[in-house]
Amino acid sequence: MRMDVFRWLPGACGSLGPALIPPAHIAVLWYFWQNYSRFVDKRFCSCSCWDTVFKGTYESGIASYKHMYFNATQNTMKMWLLIVVGVIALYECTKHLVQLLLQCKITELISTSVVLHLANVENQVTARKTLSIVGIALLHILASGVDQFISNVFRGEGYPHQVVRDLGFMIPDVMHLLLPLWLLRQTRLESFSTRPFYRDRNLRRDVVLMFFVVTVLFTICSFL
Hints:
Elements: H1 2-33, E1 46-47, E2 63-64, H2 74-102, H3 127-154, H4 160-194, H5 202-223
Antiparallel strand pairs: 1-2
Helix pairs in contact: 1-2, 3-4, 3-5
């Protein structure tokens, strides 16, 4: 019975992500935006910007109301490819994490949200791996803070849906900043207990390099 669970549970959990996350995302947006949204009367709506290519001879001219439609353009193809890659990646990552959880190969469940590679205890935790995560998180925090987070959240200038959106972006970035540092500290403490006179002479250089890269990328983002 346990082996049967091992077979179908990872795939089922992987399928739930692509199936539930987009509707949940839209539901949250609708909850905070419903007072600002426009009423749509389906009887008098039309899709005058729809090229009707994928319908062929079944429908031409200005179409009536559609819940969803797409035009046959290069941008549509690019968006479709990104969606397919994202759905497959989300499915495979979730499936892999559930498999690791069932096999008891996860360091701690909270660490799985930090990085997929470090979720497996067989992978070594190094300063460069953790600092790469910290650097990206720090860049996101700086960019979002300068952009909208401070004004919308701390100064109270944003609408409720903007505050929720900014918090939704900021909280994962803060976790990506703190959890890798905690994991690196725990690893260094364990290493110090076995090798008390060992010093990682590359750590300071890696930290300086991380701040340099973050500074350069943040400067570039400021001009975009």
